């Protein structure tokens, strides 16, 4: 049988290890230097060679380039100043009546001296109407209340509480079905017979083919409301349903538009998920023929929270219903970045269990899965989008966030199916419906269309007495307080760091002092440290020698007693040490103090042949 060679050790001495490290660093340096010379990684953008010295008009060209650079810098600085001035105007308080009158007088004084050939329209700043501080104030002032709902979920955006309150008060209630360009024509035709009498189809997107006919139909309806005297119309509804967009679409092209929420939520909105409209705004609209009507744009309403109901939620089914309701509220409002919530599964469950399985397969290009099997669908979405972790594990959380992100970015094409029932007369809206796309056309374009099970009319109580103006001003003050708190926290952190540095310096000084004390036990020649188990520190070599002699005498006496009479084994337990056990000291010790050395010989102690000699 051949001899098996023993596995060699990989230990190295310091010289070989340092030599290898040096060679590796040298190789890396050389490789890096050659990579810089490699033409493969050179930029394709050629540097400006400049104006050659032989060119006869070089000075003129350089002067023109310098002048162009100066003009660009001035234009850049002007844009910065204009932006800064615009921000300062937005942050400044709205001017009062006296300041407005002064401004008008100052502007009209030079006009009296030299009249301009053409009069330019001046935008009059909007005054905040403090009489419309709450939603209740808006409803009290309005003659007609139009509730704006999303055409993709008509019933889910309606509030039965507000509708009943307006009807009981004798007011006129209507419904504006916005975003009709996102749902098929067949769904709109099925919904119209189930909606109130004053229902108006609308498309706030100006690029939609249905925007023009829908706008004319709503303006004619507003003209009928304005017969006799000036009327006021209030636009109410959930956040992010398009109330401000409806108002902007009704205004003439030359009028100032109001800010609306972006179609794709920004990253900044994740920290401040609030609606774009924070205070009620009233605008007077001229309808022609001497008719004028006031339109009030309101912030999105909020539902009153029932704390007692939440405390009584003890059953698991009740908790599931509460979770489902909260998820629906978040997705319908779509404020901020709902796809960045910590637990995304309640949101994706709310979406998928209301969507058609076949339409989901076509929209996300995934294989067949059992109806209601959300886990299998998310696994397929993760594999289709390459969301796989290490070791081949599928990232289901990432797939769920893909679906919720599509919803938040308005890339989830869905529509709520109308209830089955009798067909009504839709000839009044024939022109608007003909401008909408059919279900077949929507399926052929983009990601198709997903049939969705919409919600029901919400009967929860709506908060009516929240002061919008106070909340808006309080939000600005809270932002300032947050900035001040951040500055204070930074100052406190700096002070804590200084205190920590001082403590570290004190500890270093203490450690240095203890190191100096320990250094007294180190020999000047051999540099061996004294390792003592028990007893006080020795003051000299002679003292230690005397103690060793006494210990040897005691050991000899004990050995003699054992030889004479064997002692029975004791059952008494030994006392446990409170300190952490340390490694046992070597039996042969060497203690050096200058040139005096003491060697303890264990073999002489065992044999008991005399006492230890001083070396």
From TrEMBL:
Biased composition (Acidic residues): 474-518, 525-536, 544-563
Main localization (coarse): nucleus
GO cellular component terms, A-Z: nucleolus
Basic residues: bias regions: 1-12, 20-34
Region (Disordered): 1-95, 474-615
Pfam families: GN3L_Grn1, MMR_HSR1
Chain ranges of the G domain: 232-324
Subcellular location: Nucleus
InterPro entries in the record: Gnl3_N_dom, GTP-bd, GTP-bd_ortho_bundle_sf, P-loop_NTPase, TRAFAC_YlqF/YawG_RiboMat
Biased composition (Basic and acidic residues): 57-88, 596-606
GO molecular function: GTP binding
Signal peptide: none
SUPFAM superfamilies in the record: P-loop containing nucleoside triphosphate hydrolases
Keyword terms: GTP-binding, Nucleotide-binding, Nucleus
Guanine nucleotide-binding protein-like 3 N-terminal domain span: 14-89
Domain of life of the source: Eukaryota
Official protein name in the record: GTP-binding protein
